[in-house]
Amino acid sequence: MSEIDIALAAVRLYAETHPRPPHVTQKEAAEMLRMSEPTIRKLIQSGALKLNRAGRIPIAMIDELAASPGTPHIGPKAA
Fold first, then answer.
1. How many CB atoms lie within 10 A of CB 16?
2. Which are the contacts of 66, defined by CB distance < 8 A and separation ≥ 6?
């Protein structure tokens, strides 16, 4: 088994034992998208992201935004 096969197996095992939550906080969304929390708030105000009744963002919206071309989230978040 090569190192890549071992790494892929580890990633699969982690994903199986740590399922993604259906909704995330604004802070978690910022970390996932490598954006600042103020930017996440602006996206909510603009309607690009929506909050549920508990004030959380559906993970599907995070996935859609991350997959959108032109989303400025590439690279590490500025300090």
1. 8
2. 32, 33, 73
Taking the CA atoms of 43, 46, 52 and 53 in sequence, report the sign of the dihedral they define. Answer: positive
Note the pLDDT tens digit of each residue in 5-18: 999 999 888 888 88
CA–CA separation, 68 vs 71, rounded Å? 6
Average pLDDT, rounded, for the chain: 87
The residues that bridge with 24 in the sheet, in sequence order, are 57
- pTM, full prediction: 0.66
> Domain locations in the chain?
22-71
**Taking Cα atoms as reference points, which of 4, 62, 64, 73 lies closest to residue 36?**
73
CA dihedral 24, 27, 29, 35 (to 10 degrees): 180
